[in-house]
Protein: MBL fold metallo-hydrolase
Amino acid sequence: MIFRQLFDQTSSTYTYLLADQGQAVLIDPVIDNTDSYITLLKELDLTLVLAIDTHTHADHITALGKLRELTGCETRVGEQSKADCANGTYRDGDTLNVGGLTLTTLFTPGHTDDSYTFMLEHDGDTSVFTGDTLLIRGTGRTDFQNGNARDQYQSLFSNLLKLPAHTWVYPGHDYKGWMVSTIGEESAHNPRLQVKDVEEYVNLMNSLDLPNPKMMDVAVPANQACGEV
Structure:
């Protein structure tokens, strides 16, 4: 398996390249980095067969449409997404196959109403690509795009945190330079997860009072069109 964690400095977004048997998938690609993705695929002699987003992003424009145009890859989004431009959708429990790799889709709403996590089990390791649902020492905000703190609490405590403690956590963003964590580490040390019940979590999330992402008014409609501005 080939694995690369790629970073967009402007939005602090992580994009993930997974590949096996010459076939590759990109998770959460950023349109401004399309050329570098194409170059990397050529250097590694990989064919991009799939590009997917964990959710409709508000802080950057997706590269799904541009990558499909340039490579002919398939693009897929969650069935709850308002984007009707992708080749297809996925729902909770679906499997996405790339080479010999299988990604299982987990519906983890709360940050947005179309948020998903992708789980990979390979060579005895389990990894989850959590988008903005679970971050390293944080969780995604729940105050726009039909976000819901109660839904996110359930996604975290009834879904992700039920995974084995050694499960690797690869988030959609990090603003401190941290690259990877584990379910056990986040359960023990993530301050957003040290709550006694859902009501305390809802109160915590509702008290954040964060400004809207700078690109929100441009990024959301563009991403509903697979990156067409």
